[in-house]
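Let's practice the habit of predicting before peeking. Look at the sequence and jot down your guess about where helices and strands might fall. Then scroll down.
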Amino acid sequence: MDTVYVHGLAVDTVIGIFDWEREIRQKVVLDVEMAVDISPSAATEDIDRTVSYKDVSDRLTQFIEQSEFLLVETMAEEIAGLILAEFAVPFVRIKLGKPDAIANACDVGVIIERGQKPA
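Done guessing? Here is the structure:
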């Protein structure tokens, strides 16, 4: 199985548990890796026979911009579920970071894997 990925997708959203965080938009940065068999699209050069990273990026940007989660954990779970359902991939790995959350850290967040990883 191959991987189609999007790394470094930055989106502004409402995220956080503190009152002041509920009143502003903060940047989250997303890395997504999806298990996909790319051989049909590679053989035919047909974009419709693979998962389009543009379509995934556009959909995730729309979803994240409109969301208002308290925790990055919840956001990551919802993103994973969305990808598995809407893009029909068997497995997804999500790294979701909140780069401005901790003053002395470059980034903080979660990494989750959902679905069945193909052998």
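How did you do? The chain has a mean pLDDT of 96.
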